[in-house]
Amino acid sequence: MTIKERIEESETRQFKAVFPNTTNHYDTLFGGTALSLMDEVAFITATRFSRQRMVTVSSNKIDFTKPIPAGTIVELIGRVSHIGTTSLKVEVNIYIEQMYNYQKEHAIFGEFTFVAIDKNKDPVKITQ
Amino acid sequence: MTIKERIEESETRQFKAVFPNTTNHYDTLFGGTALSLMDEVAFITATRFSRQRMVTVSSNKIDFTKPIPAGTIVELIGRVSHIGTTSLKVEVNIYIEQMYNYQKEHAIFGEFTFVAIDKNKDPVKITQ
Amino acid sequence: MTIKERIEESETRQFKAVFPNTTNHYDTLFGGTALSLMDEVAFITATRFSRQRMVTVSSNKIDFTKPIPAGTIVELIGRVSHIGTTSLKVEVNIYIEQMYNYQKEHAIFGEFTFVAIDKNKDPVKITQ
Amino acid sequence: MTIKERIEESETRQFKAVFPNTTNHYDTLFGGTALSLMDEVAFITATRFSRQRMVTVSSNKIDFTKPIPAGTIVELIGRVSHIGTTSLKVEVNIYIEQMYNYQKEHAIFGEFTFVAIDKNKDPVKITQ
Amino acid sequence: MTIKERIEESETRQFKAVFPNTTNHYDTLFGGTALSLMDEVAFITATRFSRQRMVTVSSNKIDFTKPIPAGTIVELIGRVSHIGTTSLKVEVNIYIEQMYNYQKEHAIFGEFTFVAIDKNKDPVKITQ
Amino acid sequence: MTIKERIEESETRQFKAVFPNTTNHYDTLFGGTALSLMDEVAFITATRFSRQRMVTVSSNKIDFTKPIPAGTIVELIGRVSHIGTTSLKVEVNIYIEQMYNYQKEHAIFGEFTFVAIDKNKDPVKITQ
Fold this sequence. Notes:
Six copies of one chain form a homohexamer.
Chain A: H1 3-10, E1 12-17, H2 31-50, E2 53-59, E3 62-64, E4 73-83, E5 87-97, E6 104-117, E7 123-124
Antiparallel strand pairs in A: 1-4, 2-6, 3-6, 4-5, 5-6, 6-7
Helix pairs in contact in A: 1-2
Pfam families (chains A, B, C, D, E, F): 4HBT (PF03061)
GO molecular function (chains A, B, C, D, E, F): long-chain fatty acyl-CoA hydrolase activity
GO biological process, one term (chains A, B, C, D, E, F): fatty acid catabolic process
């Protein structure tokens, strides 16, 4: 596969319903839960692109543009955005989807950096 | 949108990493966790198709074809499979994806039935 | 013990309070949580009957007869319903119990099939 | 019902499988998880006895006699042990049940005190 | 370090926000969640004091003086209160802190006893 | 209180034991769990400084310097690092503490930005 095809193939989606076990006392998705879901999606995207052992080394600026109310649906989409020699970056966007109409809005954007490691946890090259 | 387009549009995917908080003492995904994820994906699919208040009324036979080992990725795909007057059915398939190669296998199949209800919890017609 | 005594002995009960961490946005027990509890009770029942390594192979039709409101108590009861050569079936019923009066109603019924496996995960006979 | 019958009727059982999401780094049931399950069972027992709004006011000495290994089953049994004017006590015992033989041992004992409250959270008499 | 310094050094604090995934149907912190947090803080305190493998053997009387409302902050503080030959005791206090003013009140007090064990799970002396 | 005193007073600590329900398949703390804990500590710090309704608007670059092994203790420390007109920044550091010796290392650094809102969710000034 070309790099472009591998990026398409490794795009990773996750729909979640915003139920009470994910919310804060404002009845919106707790920011920490959002970050946890984003890191999981980013990790899966990075792993499905490289098929190597990947670990998070950093997240860049993450913007929480809109609060996400209880009783909505969120869609997370992870996509490889940059491929370096030993690291790669994954963009994750979260969208709010209303349950009872077709309104869909962007809510959160973040970018995560991963490095590939071998069994001794030493960094190795990203397979290109 | 035609019914066919609505079915395409409401297809719902969820990738998850099989971490220790989801496994049983055999180090495979706990069956109850799999059922919980399937019901969530089925509920989101039904809601995104109908844009109505949907409640689960039954699940048909669910086949656990393969155990899902810890340290793999699962993909759940929900898709509307039948539309009745006041109920609809959603098929959910779970696939196991290896992390470090391209192997992907079917693991679990299930079908869930939902009815649409109004604010008084009385059944209403599915919008067609 | 006779088979009949083993069925009595392995009957498995689980009471749970329906707190916010188990509910959906309708303030009723999330269907996925109910399925997860049912599979756990069915697994324990099957294991306590056979004292062998058991894995879920399927669930038959599960009927969600009544929604289960937040602030109630549920009782799950698992009971072996059929014993085959290499598989057995467990029925699970969920009852809703009101907290502040003696009303108790049936809410969900399901049946789960298990097979016995050895250490190599090959099917073995159910001990009779 | 007599008090004795109400005590029998309100006895509350909960079986749980000791899976990785409940254990500590010694691969035994985390003490905090055990306490949380005990308080839930005690609360349900107190509520099912009195059919009144009950709140925990204290737990007496709780003895952790035996560690509970991962891959076992636990049974919790709650039973009203003392009835006062505005409070009652519930004993909770936890037993470890091996999965693959009939060995069953006592592991933890505790006693919890509850008071009945009205809607304004003022203490009221236990219905006798 | 002196014993007194080791007690100071091992004092262990944990702040938590009381979100819906920790509450009961009265919209207050579920008692079982409070006990679970207390045992975790007590375990960390005991381990940080002794730097040995510690296991909970009992909790003394725990007093739930005040219910803890949703939408508040709790602070848990663990502190070694007694050092025996093979066991030590840890006091844990929980305080409720209002979010939008400086009011802080004591809510729960408990004391936990730990013993030190070696790799074979046999009791050993507390390092003094 | 002066600003400096308010910063001291609102410093917020959280100790956690790294148990299996928080780890990934490498047996290290899952990055998403770390981010969730960091956001909770940052939110509590911001709220305790301002005593106003605070919402996360962004996180700056977060560096995961060291993986955090299962069976260790982590300490999170949140501290207000910048106070603007309608927003403030909170730094969160995570340290790994070994259980059985006194080694303590820095593992993760992040900075979170919060804004104060009123009951209509409109931004308001930070109380100075």
